[in-house]
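Reagents: none. Just compute today. Rho GTPase-activating protein 42-like.
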Amino acid sequence: MGLPTLEFSDSYLDSPDFRERLKCHEVELERTNKFIKELIKDGSLLIGALRNLSMAVQKFSQSLQDFQFECIGDAETDDEISIAQSLKEFARLLIAVEEERRRLIQNANDVLIAPLEKFRKEQIGAAK
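Predicted 3D structure written out:
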């Protein structure tokens, strides 16, 4: 449907019809402002959770890289060597994934959260 139009010339008359249309616009501005605020809040919480996840995965990856089998006897078995190499390779893959996640998190903040906050403050705030 859409909002009824507001004509500057109608503001001079200050009719009840104009006031009703103006009220519709004010209600929509407030609704949009609240929605964007919630979106920013939820996005920020998500980014925080992703940062925490990233730190936990990095710690796990470091633990995998640091893992060493305790040998019984003079040398590691072929299975022990294979498992240790697999853990180190898995750790390297996790690190690569986390580097990309860090970029994604930074992009989300720079491309989504900051512009939304700027729009809400500058555009909606000015219109109010």
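The helical segments are 8-13, 16-66, 78-127.
Action item: order primers for follow-up constructs.
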